[in-house]
Structures are given as C-alpha cells and as structure tokens.
C-alpha cells in the first residue's frame, strides 16, 4: 500500500485539565485567599471593640470589688457560770430555735446556793418582824412616858396648890399667935409642919416630873434606835432577796439555751467537761446575712445607700444575686484595726484606704438559697453608681 493511499491518522484525544489547575477556579481561590484575612481581621477587631466598649460602659456605670464577703450574726454561746457539764443536747450543724436547750451543767451546787439564800431571806424577814415589834414597844414606852409626864405635871400642880394653901395658913397662924394668942402653940406648930410637908411634896413632884420628862427622852431615843433597827433589817432583807435572785440566776444559767434561731457550729464541749464562766461552748450562726464589701476610697464619690448591686458568690457561680447598698462605714477599715497606723512617724508611703460598705441581699435570694449563704464566703459585687 502506497503512502499516498494510507488513511490520515486519527486525531488524538484531548488530555483533561485537572480542576485544581482550571484557570477560573484558580482565580476564585486566589480572590478568596486574598479577602478572608482582612474579613477575619475586621471580625476580630469588631469583637475587640465590642468587648472594650462593654468593659468601658461597665466601668463607667459600676464600681466593682472582689474584697467582699458574706457576714451575719454569729453568737458565741458561752457558759455564764462555772460547773461540770452534765449533758450536751446538740451537735455540729444542728438547726436550733431561740430558747432551745443546748447543754446542762450539774445543778446541785446551784440548788444548794438557792436554798441557802432562801434560808437567809427567811432569817432576815424574821429579824425585820422583830425590829417592827421593837418599834411598837418603843412607841408604847414613849406614850407611857408622856402619860407619866402628864401625871407628874398634874401632881405638881396639886402640890403647888397645897403648898400655897399651907403657906397662907402658916402666915395667918403666925399672925394670930403673935397678936394676942388667938391660937395655941400646937396650932402654929401644925401649920408649920403642914407647910414643910407641902414643900417636901412639891419637891418630890418636881423630881417625878423631871424623871418623867427624862423617861420621854429615853423613850424617844429607844424609838429612834428601834426605827434604825427596822431600817437595818429592811436592808438585810433587800440584800437577802438580791442574794436569792443571784442564786436563782446562777441556777438558771446552769441550763445553756440558744440566744436566737440558727445553726450550731464549732461545738467545743462534751459531757463531763469542767467549764469556766465565759468559756465558749458553741458558735451559733443566724440565717439572716448581709455582705461587707471593702471599696477603695477613690470608688466612693458616687456611692450612696439605695443603689442596686449585682452579686456573684464564688461558691455559687451559677446564681446571679442582687442587693442594695445599705450604708457606708463611718471610717476606713484601718481606723477600726486593733493597732491603727500612725502616719506621723517614720517615712510616709501613701496607701489607698478601703471603706467597708454594707450591702443587703434581696429577700427572694435569701429565701431561695437559705443556708447556702454562709458567713465568710467570698463574693464579687458590682454597684451601679450611674
């Protein structure tokens, strides 16, 4: 076969172009790679701007501190008298009511003291009755002495009259005897004897009157003494009554009761222990709590009672709590320290002071969480000041 008669060669099939190397797709990929970084940068920038704006707005409207904690009434229940513990009726974490018995001391020695005080009171009252009887006797004696004075006065008046009559009779008889012997010597002697007897009777009655008047003074003095004895006996009765009340108080203190409703913690007593007066036996935490937040002095210019507060408790991160500013302390915390700093000595370094702020929780939050709000828990507070 001639080359001229050979058929033309068949055309070769086109080699397919890979999609990754397709010109249009490659251009689109290049455009995407060109713009995704700026777009991502814009998104991140907007997020940062939004976050910064949120922070700035929050900083403008709120004052925040994490130097805050929950506090409340925590009673140190202590023994009021010394004695041996007989029974302990509660344990740690028990809920108690106000007035509930927590422990009892051995009451025997206090009962004996109360009985002694009762006996002393009875004795003092008996002495008071005796003193009142003495006063009555003294009053009677004074009345009798006054009656004697009256009687002696009457007798003196009588003898005075008799003396006067005897004097006149003697003078008349002497005149009659000297003027002619109208009377006998015996009559004159009788007149003289009667006058002397009247004088003696007068002197005796004057002595009786003086004695009666002295008896009145003595009776008055005895009445004064008896009245003083009454007052002394009344003082003894009052002292005995006070001693009885004190003995009863000590007997009552042998029973240790809860001063308020709450929960027992830190029990430090067991039956058989010998406790002293003032020794702490239990700690009792009441259910009502509040927050003390220590703010820097530079955070206080716009803070005042009544402002709303957002609260986060570290132990309860899933609960958003709210409250209200109740009051601000009258001085910084350093002023209430046991040893306040004295900036007038040595080198001075200025330190930003903190002022305690009392924040009360919403009643609903307290009702909802109850005992989970424990004194001492750390919190973060945000006070809205604008």
Automatic annotation (TrEMBL):
Coiled coil residues, start to end = none
- Any one Pfam family match given in the protein's UniProt record, by short name: BSH_RND
List membrane-spanning regions: 35-57
Q: Which Gene3D superfamilies match?
A: 2.40.30.170, 2.40.50.100, Helix hairpin bin
What keywords sit in the KW lines? Answer: Membrane, Transmembrane, Transmembrane helix
Signal peptide feature range: none
Q: At the top level of its lineage, which domain of life is listed?
A: Bacteria
In terms of PANTHER family, this protein maps to:
MEMBRANE FUSION SUBUNIT OF EMRAB-TOLC MULTIDRUG EFFLUX PUMP (PTHR30386), MULTIDRUG EXPORT PROTEIN EMRA-RELATED (PTHR30386:SF19)
> What is this protein identified as?
HlyD family secretion protein
The scientific name of the source species is Horticoccus luteus
